[in-house]
Amino acid sequence: MKINISPSAIIESGVEIGENSSIGAFTILRKGTKVGANSEIGSFCEIGTATPLAENPQLVIGENCKLRSRTTIYAGSRIGNNFISGHQVVIRENTLIGDDVRVGTFSDIQGDCKIGNFTRIHSSVHIGKYSKVGSFVWIFPYVVLTNDPLPPSNNLKGVWIQDFAVVAAMSTILPGVIVGFGSLIGAKSLVKQDVPIEVLALGSPARTIKPVQKIRNNVTGLPAYPWFQHYTEGYPNDISLIYAKLRKTFIKDHGQT
User: Fold this and answer.
1) CB neighbours (10 Å) of residue 19?
2) Rounded to whole angstroms, how far apart are CA atoms 239 and 255?
């Protein structure tokens, strides 16, 4: 088993590191941390940060993950395989992240969040405590998912971004709002009410404009949504079948068409 650990790294007792992994300079792995095989943790990271808010003292990071410099991940979270973080990402306690997720530089995921598979979170995004982000979601820079309807208070209500939804740059989603399956939130929108599935919503406050299927690609003139019709890089070959199956489930469970 080959593990490359910088001489300046601090590895506390009880840490498990998978084979073919590397730990960068001045990085700290706290006790109870488990890192999967073929993973790379950059310099100046703190992984497994202790907190009394963690429901479980263990932090589990999957295989084939890449954590860039100054990433901080708290104890009590579980991160799937093929995870990639940008620089100076913070992930708080009790957060569950699926496989093949990417989180951009300076993004902040607060505690007790859930993020599905193949979701892309760009730079400088704030995911408020108790947020739920589905699979195959895109969240672009400077988006804020809020959670406190009467700040400051302890009556927190997380946002739910459903599968295949896209939230464009600099949008704010207010506490407890649901962004529907496959929908698009336009840039700089303030979303105060639930958004149905597969619609374009934009503005401040955001309002429903039209079904996403009516949005056209300016270059080809073809339908731009669902987005995987023209963008499939890094996604499963059967993504269209996955979309159809999940769409049917959301319509059945939520009564939307």
Assistant:
1) 12
2) 23
| 21, amino acid identity | S
**157 half-sphere exposure, CB direction, 13 A CA radius:** 10
Domains of the chain: 3-254 (2.160.10.10)
d(CA 127, CA 110): 6
What average pLDDT is seen over the chain? Answer: 96
Q: What does the alpha-carbon distance between residue 44 and residue 49 come to, in Å, rounded to a whole number?
A: 13
Cα→Cα distances 86→2, 28, 38, 140, Å: 25, 18, 18, 14
pLDDT at 3: 94
Q: 46: which 2 tokens?
A: 């703190």
The pTM for the full model equals: 0.95
pLDDT digits 0-9 by tens, 164-210: 999 999 999 999 999 999 999 999 999 999 999 999 999 999 999 99
Upper half-sphere CA count for residue 129 (Cβ side, 13 Å): 11
